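User: My collaborator sent over this chain with a note saying "see what the structure looks like." That's all I know about it. Can you take a look?
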Amino acid sequence: MTFSTLDDLVARAQERLDPISGDARLPAGGDDDLVAEDQKGAIRPAAVLIGLIPRPSGATALLTQRPDTMAAHPGQVAFPGGKIDPEDTDAVGAALREAKEEVGVDPAQVELIARSAPYVTGSAFRITPVIGLLPADFEPVPDPGEVAGVFETPLSFLFNKSNYQTGHAHWRGRQRQYTEMPWQGYRIWGVTAGIVRVLYDRLYEEEI
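Assistant: Without extra context I'll predict from the sequence alone. Here is the result:
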């Protein structure tokens, strides 16, 4: 199956994913097998906001290009987000704070939907993806110190398995595979593509 309508995606997310509050039920996954042995005891919690925008031409997801100066995943495409700070109430609070700082999302205007399965990265982050609806007239206000660019990708593209490609790389002495989905000059791959793929599988492939 593939994405059909935004309403259908929201209904599937509310049925199949973790609720916004409470304990996480979905098992963590991702690239946990790539975490270095000396980092496995110090995996850092983080969160991202998967901001869905009901544009008249079709629903989109908000994405950013990370600056090349970032210590982690420089230059990569990412959802707005970052580490969970001590002042954050939880992963949801961190995702909303980071989205506000990076691209000007007003937390009060986000309709929170659900949380996807935590994604463990090879760089030792445990990312909780938070799904929320943004206003149809949302206009990003990017902070150039936080992001190098902002763009939107149609959900009909992101949640269509025929757009997924498999890449190969040699990393930390090991051969690995990863998902990528090039979109209009942007290379959506690595952690972000992995988060999308996990979400796609849960919403459209798995039997509940």
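A starting point for your reply to your collaborator: The radius of gyration is 16 Å.
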